[in-house]
Design a protein that fits this description.
elongated
């Protein structure tokens, strides 16, 4: 410190040296200031570049998520619509005015449903994929039931639609009652009662000229089976429940409750 003091005193004692030192400090300070300013600008530029990259990355990710959400919404909606359409075609098989083309329509709709299921497997979470699979199981059950029981049901509906004023109305009603009684007896495992009611149903059906031999056999053999309309009601409830769970899960996934 003493040596530094002597240097300072020497500089002060020599005006020319003092002036030179002051000038040097002024120049050096300017250079240092410029250097510091450049460093600050450089760091600021890097920060801006980093911020721009982060913003671009965030924007790209947001766009990706938005596109994924739109894809999921579209595929889920199409899957639900196709499931309902397939079951609707299956239901048409039970109608009296069933057309042969309905079978082809069912196959086409089911293939399209399978395609939608596969597309969901690519973009939806595993939990949603499982719910979609459960929907397909119910749809397939509806298709199988219609394929198995619709032919006899169509004949039965023709009997039910026999006009009251028709000379065949009484026999049609007798046949329907005997068929129902035979089904009940079969479920109760009462062989004697079943044989009696089946015979009564056959006798009544033979009085109906618009019921062919094959159709009569369809109705008689159908009495071995469970009650169709109750089973169809159970299937409809199962389908509504499966679709309801899928739609609820999809709304949570897509945050549909937040819209609006």
């Amino acid at each position: 410190m003493a040596a530094m003091g002597r240097v300072i005193e020497a500089i002060k004692g020599n005006p020319e040296v003092f002036a030179a030192v002051v000038a040097f400090i002024g120049i050096g300070g300017g250079i240092l200031g410029n250097f510091i300013g450049a460093r600050i600008q450089l760091r600021g530029g890097r920060a801006q570049a980093d911020a721009a990259r982060d913003a671009a990355r965030i924007t790209a990710e947001a766009q990706r998520l938005a596109a994924l959400r739109d894809d999921r919404r579209r595929e889920i909606a199409q899957f639900v619509q196709k499931a309902r359409e397939t079951v609707s075609y299956a239901k048409a098989l039970y109608q009296r005015d069933h057309q042969g083309g309905d079978q082809a329509a069912i196959r086409t709709a089911y293939l399209e449903l399978s395609q939608k299921q596969a597309e969901l497997e690519l973009i939806a979470p595993a939990s949603l994929v499982e719910l979609a699979r459960q929907v397909v199981v119910v749809v397939e059950s509806c298709m199988d039931l219609a394929d198995d029981r619709a032919p006899a049901e169509r004949v039965r509906r023709r009997l039910e639609a026999t006009p009251v004023m028709s000379p065949h109305h009484v026999w049609a009603q007798r046949a329907l009652r005997a068929l129902d009684d035979a089904r009940v007896a079969n479920l109760a495992r009462d062989g004697n009662e079943y044989a009696a009611f089946r015979s009564a149903a056959r006798t009544a059906l033979e009085q109906l000229p618009h019921v062919g031999d094959d159709e009569r056999l369809l109705l008689l053999d159908d009495t071995y089976r469970f009650h169709l309309r109750e089973r169809r009601r159970d299937q409809e409830e199962s389908l509504n429940a499966a679709l309801g769970e899928l739609v609820s899960a999809a709304r949570r996934l897509l945050k549909s409750e937040d819209v609006g």
